[in-house]
Amino acid sequence: ENDITRPKGYTVSWHSNPEIEKHHFGHAHPMKPWRLTLAKGLIMAYGMHAAMDTYVSRPATKEELEDFHSEEYLDYLKSALVTVPDDNEIKDFNLGNTDCPIFEGLFNYCSMYSGASIDAARKLCNGESDIAINWSGGLHHAKKAEASGFCYVNDIVLAIVQLLRKHPRVLYIDIDVHHGDGVEEAFWSTDRVLTLSIHKYDGMNFFPGTGDLDRTGPDSEENPGAHHAINVPLSDGIGDQQYVWLFKTIVGMCVQRFQPTAIVLQCGADSLAGDRLGRFNVQVQGHGACVTYCKSLGIPLLLVGGGGYTPRNVARAWAHETSIAIGCDGKLNPTIPQHTPYRSHFRHETIFPTLEEILGDPRGNKNTDKKIREIVSSITEQLRFVNN
Ligand code: ZL4
Ligand code: CA
Ligand code: ZN
């Protein structure tokens, strides 16, 4: 029996569509939409869906997608076939390469995950939910007329555009191991969105090669966007203690200075230990502590997914973060086994980890406490220019 009930005093909405999970990027591609099936399996096995308003999302309309993307790009995305495109097409839209392949149902996949983020943002705008969740979204690299890093349509930008119809100021926070360059670029010249990305940075040696500490917005002080981009570049192996301290310190300062009326948190799970592409040593607990902190601010909150390339760990993290959203973290019914339920994809594990433990190769931590403190002082200085 499970005792997970609806949270008192606030509403959580969960936006998903099983169609999304069925798409395949191709053999050996790290982005696996079926990780969403694993996450959903855990969320439902723990009975968490009973505590949320659940919505089967619909595809975003052409008009909605055009809120950010160019018509020519969307037309090409819609008509793109599983063929080898000529050089001209690669140059125009960065589509049809190993990172961003053209696969069956590509446009459907993009419209579906975007529709879910737009719906989630609208629920926050009309007050029907206080925390809205779309684990299939969070595709932060897509540009106006360009695919990039497994991302074709930028659902985060589309969701923030919806939030801006009602909210004067939106804080965007990105804990994916990669720099949230597409969202940063989209709101580069406005002071109504403060973007904050925490990521591994090693110049051109780590994708996408941007997001150094001194990338703070347009150079001209006349531009309203000046100082409204915050970047936290980190090195390999950061663990929970440093990561969570940094997160709370910096987000706390951002909230105090910027006074956002809505928050979007991109919960990319490739910042977890043991990720196939990531380089950090963050545990499910530390990753979840970022969600707990954002929730505690009492501001409308949109949670989206993002990266995450070790599917069993992605499922654990997003199930744990769903439990935080509905307030049942730490009190999941003990009659539900604390190990992850049996699934064929977990069958090679010899021991059953709890939701709080990640089995990953420990990585050496290259981040000194001195460097972490320097990052905080630099951002403290930057935020003196952010005023509301
Ligand atoms: C793969 O094994 O750094 C794609 C991509 C496909 C299958 C077989 C093809 C083998 C790793 C990555 C050749 C792969 C060559 N397959 C990939 C500069 C690169 C050019 C492409 O989490 N090669 C490009 C993108 C990053 C680059 C990261 C993160 C998204 C997000 C939000 C996007 N691109 C070098 C790599 C494989 C592959 C194995 C891969 N691609 C790892 N890192 C990248 O921020 C969702
Ligand atoms: Ca990031
Ligand atoms: Zn990533």
Give your account of this protein's structure.
This protein is an alpha/beta fold. The chain has a single domain, classed as Arginase, Chain A, CATH 3.40.800. Helix content is 35%, strand content 11%. The protein is built from 12 helices and 8 strands. The chain has an 8-stranded parallel sheet with strand order 2-1-3-8-7-4-5-6, sandwiched between helices. It is globular and about 45 Å long. It starts with 11 loop residues before the first strand and ends in a 5-residue tail after the last helix. The model is unreliable at 334-338 and 341-347 (pLDDT under 50). The protein binds ligand ZL4, calcium ion and zinc ion.
Which key features would you list for this structure?
binds ligand ZL4; 388 residues; single chain; binds calcium ion; eight-stranded parallel beta sheet; Arginase, Chain A; alpha/beta
Secondary structure: elements and pairs:
Layout: E1 12-16, H1 18-21, H2 35-45, E2 53-56, H3 62-65, H4 71-79, H5 87-93, H6 106-125, E3 131-134, H7 155-164, E4 170-174, H8 181-186, E5 193-200, E6 229-234, H9 240-258, E7 262-266, H10 284-296, E8 301-304, H11 311-326, H12 369-383
Parallel strand pairs: 1-2, 1-3, 3-8, 4-5, 4-7, 5-6, 7-8
Helix pairs in contact: 2-11, 6-7, 9-10, 9-12, 10-11
The structure holds ligand ZL4, calcium ion and zinc ion.
Zinc ion binds at residues 176-178, 268, 270, 306-307.
